[in-house]
Amino acid sequence: MRKTNTLSQDRERFNGNFTQQEPIPDAGIQRAVEVLQSGRLHRYNVVEGEKSDTALLETEFAEYQGARFCLACASGGYAMQVALSSFGLEYGEPVLTNAFTLSPVPGAVHNVGGKPVLVETTEQLVIDLVDLERKIESSGSRVLLLSHMRGHIADMDHLCDLLDQKGVSLIEDCAHTMGASWSGRLSGSFGVAACFSSQTYKHINSGEGGFVTTDDPDLMARAIIRSGSYMLYEHHDAAPEPAAFSDIRFDNPNCSGRMDNLRAAILRPQLKILGGNRERWNERYHTLEQALGVIKGVTLPIRPKAEVYVGSSIQFLLKEMTAEQIQMVISTCRERGVELKWFGASEPAGYTSSHDSWRYIDNQSLPATDRILSKLLDMRIPLTFSLEDCRLISRIIDQCITASAPENSPDAG
Questions:
Q1: How confident is the model at residue 407 (pLDDT cuts 50, 70, 90)?
Q2: Contacts of 366 (CB under 8 A, 6+ apart)
Q3: Does residue 122 sit in the same domain as residue 174?
Q4: Which helix (H) or strand (E) holds 119?
Q5: Could you give the number of structural domains in the chain?
Q6: Looking at the domain assignment, is residue 2 inside a domain?
Q7: Exposed (0-12), middle (13-18) or buried (19+): which is 14, by Cβ within 10 Å?
Q8: Backbone φ, ψ for residue 160 (5° rounding)
Q9: Helix %, strand %, coil % for the chain, to 5?
């Protein structure tokens, strides 16, 4: 049992682990063992009459998303790359994307020869539609790679209307919104294609992995060939008819990025419990949101009524604090077992970075995003946390913020 210091509340310490995930379901472990015993880990290594776990997972994920086609691949980053290249992106072509995101998003654009054009964020941590319109006009881009960063979904009705008016296509990065929705439509159902991740810290866990979904048969045929199907595309069930591959198979390179049967085996049972896990994440999120929302100096993003999210992380701003005070909050929380990430840090750390550290892309002026990220803290919420853990974490954050607040600094008064 986890122990905390009960003698003095302000000395409590959280002894949990912010990176510890729940075990793979027993059904996934059993099936993984069967795959290992068979030796048939490669998705195309099947016996006569057998459907590979990867092919079955693609069909199940397409059905879950309500999409015509699905490709399972090696990572969420690869999913974005193959979606962009299969869309027909040309070398040097501008691609609109969020300024507030994780580095694999501009990395995917760069890796397929595109030129990232970063769009400002709002205090609600979603893409700024006013700046998006400006950047559409100034860049001439024909595609937006929209990152639903940290699970925050923009007003998709207004965004899609704008893109339609401007003739811009949408590819969604749903790494943080698998199982989320806007106005009753699943995240990933708004554009020409959507990309998902099953990396360990996402909503289903295979260590690494990803998906591309689309209703466009030509885009999916190109993606399947590019993923490394060779001439085995008929082994894909969540795929276009073979006629769609007649020319595409010759015109697209093999850029191997397949998912294997072992990862597919452990993902299939997780997909079945995603809805229940979304509710469990949101219980934890709501507990933290309620407690953090009453702390003086803390600003939480407003979650719109149209948004059904998956609260696997939480973000808040410390608008009144200096960089030194925010660093003090992070340090004192860490001493008491609470791990906070800061998007405004001067140096990238772990998974967290901001646009000025992505030197492989053109330097871009983003004053609104810089202002917001300078005050923004982020925290994971794994399902291994109990609701009492969330309340304890909130108390520790409250105490550390209070101790670091401007009025409590040594120079105050």
A1: low
A2: 99, 118, 120, 355
A3: yes
A4: strand 115-119
A5: 2
A6: no
A7: buried
A8: -65, -35
A9: 40, 15, 45
Cα separation, 236 vs 395, whole angstroms? 51
Q: What are phi and psi of 261, to 5 degrees?
A: -70, -25
**What letters, b where the CB count within 10 A reaches 16 and e where it falls short, cover 139-173?**
bebbbbbbbbbbbbbbbbeebbebbeeeebbbbbb
Q: Tokens for 178?
A: 């698998």
Alpha-carbon distance values, 133 to 77, 96, 109, 166 (Å) = 26, 10, 20, 8
Residue finishing a domain among 220, 243, 272: 272
Enclosing domain of residue 370: 275-408
DSSP tag of 193: E
Do residues 309 and 361 both lie within one domain? yes
Domain identity same for 191 and 284 = no
> Tokens 């709501």 sit at which residue?
286
Q: Please tell me whether residues 188 and 317 are part of one structural domain.
A: no
Predicted local distance difference test score (pLDDT) of residue 380 = 98
- pTM as predicted: 0.95
Pairing state of beta strands 94-98 and 115-119? parallel
Q: Are residues 161 and 264 in the same domain?
A: yes
Confirm whether 93 is domain-assigned. Answer: yes
Say if 1 falls within a structural domain: no
Please tell me whether residues 73 and 171 are part of one structural domain.
yes
Q: How confident is the model at residue 7, as a pLDDT?
A: 37
Does residue 322 share a domain with residue 289? yes
Distance CA 118, CA 130 (A): 13
The residue ranking higher by pLDDT, 347 or 124, is 124
Distance CA 390, CA 289 (A): 10
Fill in the amino acid letter for 279: E
Does one domain contain both 160 and 240?
A: yes
Instruction: Give the model confidence (pLDDT) of 72-95 as tens digits.
Output: 999 999 999 999 999 999 999 999
Which of 136, 208, 211, 143 has its CA nearest to residue 174? 211
Q: Which residues pair with 212 in a beta bridge?
A: 71, 195
Quote the CA–CA distance of 99 and 86 in Å, as a whole number: 23
In contact, 148 and 118? CB cutoff 8 Å:
no
CATH of the domain at 365: 3.90.1150.10
Confidence check: pLDDT of 142 > 60? yes
